[in-house]
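Design job #97: recover the sequence.
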């Protein structure tokens, strides 16, 4: 007779791909007619924006745009000029198991950019991108909790009580952010905007009912050129707050929210001393929680022979969720005297992992760029690629998901031999560990116990083997653990070694 089993569906998401794609894009561009000829390219900066993302069969696709700004010295005398170029990009990541019903999360970053003048009216631009791609596929796992009517077949069942830390919701919300900025604090002529960088950072998120409330700030960096030619940098943190609908998560869930720039626009207002900044942003949220789970690990009948099938069921637990800031202090050698620093910025690339015993070494690629004035008051640029490391304890077999961010500003100042820069990189770490728990998937009752074996003894006397549990003994002799405990006056569910046990049979 086939036994009726109690089953439960665990609904959530499975992460089928999590990768950082690094690629290079190049483009030849003509200098616009309104711009003078190029004598020397000083710097290339820019912003990577997310245009779209798509889940396909076994593939995640991301598209976007890099808005690069070239700062160059024109032929003859004069202050710096700017030239803006757009480079579209498309990247794909293999995602086995992903379907069109899945969700793709993406975060593009401009790691570094450079340009070379082919002639005074033509440049070759190269940008180096890093795109974090996470592909999530809706999933439904069915687990067996127990037998519907254990008394009917004189059944004993062993259940595992635990929890499964799973991705229970993936949501996103586009929204528009607008703010008016001052481009000048004093009096005099209005400076010219040379470069604009924006970075949305989510600093706080909380679930209340079925709503996810998240707050953060758009970190805005302006590079301005004064009428007399001097460069000044301006940083401003612009707060935002949004609400997103998230169903079936629970207020005790953990939220991870990232905000990406889809498009931005800068429009001077009035005499140009103020400007309207408008951003099209996309919030991408992953919600995880620990869900209680009951699994039927084993069962037997004291009255009937039984056949049972089982398979391992993976369950995940949260080991650690933390933010680990790493402060970096670096000297960028210039080989010349630095009079002043005009601007400094940091770009983060791929994060790699290496294991050293029980420790995990996380290494983030960082590209540091500083604009400075030399002895002759000429604008120069120095760049340095450097690794930033973070060490943390991580058990064998555990998995660490890590993303990095650079909160706040990069501080740079003239120093002996060059420029000294200070900044902080935050490692956002999520460590989980999975284990396989045996689970009964089907069971059938057969003939009554003892059929064809003759008279069974009412009591058996034997020693417990090392590693053998009372459950194993009771199952082998068709009795119950409670009867063994009572017959031997034991209080713990662990057989004493070296002592003979009375094993009564069930009649």
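Job complete. Output follows.
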């Amino acid at each position: 007779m086939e036994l009726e089993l109690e089953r439960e569906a665990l609904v959530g998401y499975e992460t089928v791909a999590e990768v950082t794609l690094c690629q290079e894009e190049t483009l030849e561009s003509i200098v616009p007619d309104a711009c003078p000829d190029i004598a020397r390219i000083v710097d290339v900066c820019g912003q990577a924006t997310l245009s779209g993302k798509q889940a396909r069969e076994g593939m995640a696709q991301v598209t976007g745009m890099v808005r690069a700004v070239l700062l160059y010295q024109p032929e003859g005398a004069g202050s710096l000029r700017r030239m803006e170029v757009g480079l579209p990009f498309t990247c794909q990541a293999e995602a086995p198991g992903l379907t069109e019903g899945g969700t793709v999360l993406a975060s593009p970053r401009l790691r570094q950019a450079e340009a070379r003048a082919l002639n005074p009216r033509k440049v070759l631009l190269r940008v180096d991108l890093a795109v974090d791609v996470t592909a999530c596929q809706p999933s439904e796992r069915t687990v067996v909790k127990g037998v519907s009517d254990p008394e009917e077949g004189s059944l004993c069942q062993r259940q595992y009580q635990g929890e499964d830390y799973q991705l229970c919701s993936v949501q996103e919300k586009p929204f528009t952010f607008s703010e008016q900025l001052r481009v000048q604090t004093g009096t005099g002529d209005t400076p010219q905007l040379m470069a604009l960088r924006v970075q949305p950072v989510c600093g706080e998120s909380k679930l209340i009912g079925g709503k996810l409330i998240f707050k953060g700030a758009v970190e805005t960096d302006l590079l301005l050129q004064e009428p007399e030619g001097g460069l000044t940098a301006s940083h401003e943190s612009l707060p935002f707050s949004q609400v997103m609908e998230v169903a079936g998560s629970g207020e005790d869930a953990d939220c991870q929210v990232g905000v990406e720039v889809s498009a931005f626009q800068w429009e001077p207002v009035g005499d140009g001393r103020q400007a309207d900044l408008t951003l099209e942003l996309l919030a991408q949220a992953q919600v995880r929680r620990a869900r209680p789970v009951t699994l039927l690990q084993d069962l037997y009948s004291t009255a009937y022979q039984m056949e049972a099938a089982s398979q391992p069921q993976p369950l995940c637990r949260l080991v650690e969720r933390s933010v680990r800031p790493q402060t970096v202090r670096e000297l960028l050698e210039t080989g010349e005297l630095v009079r002043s620093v005009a601007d400094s910025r940091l770009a983060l690339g791929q994060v790699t992992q290496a294991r050293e015993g029980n420790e995990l070494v996380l290494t983030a690629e960082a590209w540091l760029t500083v604009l400075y004035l030399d002895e002759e008051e000429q604008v120069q640029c120095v760049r340095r690629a450097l690794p930033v490391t973070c060490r943390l304890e991580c058990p064998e077999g555990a998995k660490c998901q890590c993303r990095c961010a650079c909160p706040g500003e990069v501080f740079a100042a003239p120093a002996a031999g060059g420029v000294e820069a200070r900044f902080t990189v935050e490692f956002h770490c999520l460590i989980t560990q999975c284990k396989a728990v045996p689970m009964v998937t089907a069971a059938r009752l057969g003939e009554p116990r003892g059929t064809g074996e003759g008279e069974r003894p009412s009591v058996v006397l034997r020693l417990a083997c090392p590693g053998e549990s009372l459950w194993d003994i009771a199952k082998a002799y068709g009795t119950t653990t409670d009867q063994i405990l009572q017959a031997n006056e034991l209080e713990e569910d662990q057989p004493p070694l070296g002592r003979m046990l009375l094993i009564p049979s069930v009649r």
